[in-house]
Amino acid sequence: MTLSFLRAAALATALTAAIAPCAAAPLSLEEALNLAAQRSEASRAAGAAIQSVTQAASTASQLPDPSLRIGVDNLPVTGPDRLHTTRDSMTMKRIGISQEWLSPEKRAARQAAADASVGREAVSLQAAVADTRLQTALVYLDAFFAGEAFKLTNLMEHHAHEEWEASRARLSSSVGSSQEVLALTAARGVAADETAEVVQQQSAARLTLQRWVGVQADELTPMPALNLPTEAAYVAAHPTVEALRRDVEVAKQTAAVMASNRQANWTWEVAYGQRTGNADMVSVGVSIPLQLAPARRQDRETAAKWALVDKTEADLVEATRAASAEYRAGVSDVRGLQERITRYRSGVLVPTAQRTAAATAAYRSNQASLVTLFEARHAEVQAQRKLLALQRDLTKAQVQLAYKPLALGAAQ
What we know:
Elements: H1 2-19, H2 29-38, H3 41-57, E1 67-73, E2 92-101, H4 104-172, H5 178-213, H6 231-236, H7 239-260, E3 266-275, E4 281-287, H8 298-364, H9 370-403, H10 406-411
Antiparallel strand pairs: 1-2, 2-3, 3-4
């Protein structure tokens, strides 16, 4: 009987464990970044653009399609043979093929321009992925620190409730005063409102995070340490700089294609003519465009394209300077925040903790009121919240530096 009971209990336990929903594992930053990258529609759009230009580039070096030419030459339109194709010996039915010919140099130039466009769209895809990861990291950061702030405000609410309960007990024993109870009642309400505010912020941050990752995250793991790039690596992989670098290449190749138009494309044609009562004929010909004023047309069109190259190169230099300044400003923010946090720990947190300890000892020896103890505790929690805000700002500055660049943002 005992053995049967144990088996039944074990079976029931196993079934309960199988049926009960599994607790969701905490979501890490790397998991959030991967989920966001997988469901990013911006990345899918950029991928479709790459597919489009890749398909177009596959035909860039090909010759144009040949043309089929069909016609009737010398057809009478007056007299007794009007509109008859077989009565006049000069009337000839003709069929032929013509082909525009592009030199190998021209086709190579067009292929190079098409390949440059593919490279430009590839950068757009990398930029979309990097931006998705950056935005996800920022909202993950907001959600995580909102959760940490909730822990502090909840602790403050707990302290306020403890002091309020103690003040009521002191009042009932004629040791405390009604003013003390009223002050702690108001403090309890303020603490509850602060907790409600942080809960609202945490809910909004988690909903924003869910918009990026597609799943609801009830718990987040702490932010990992981030490796910051060097200035050279940051500038080289900056989305704007890399995009303009590719734009320069596209502009140069487009100008080369335009310069190749200085040499006109010839068109070859072969036709077979059929005549009634006379020998059939074969015609061979070539069409050569006459560039009457290349200095005023083709050369100016080429110059216009090279002017765009100069413009894009100037934009690239300006973007490089801006990216460099952006990096230095970010590094300056990181260093400044690190110094502020160090000073704040020693200059504010330590004294407030000592104040709380002194107020607690004074209260236990009946030398301080509950209001004094609460104010000391509240000041310490507020100092911890300020430190948390500084840590959030520091992490945000580090995330901007670590995830803004293309390669680093995609592989971090």
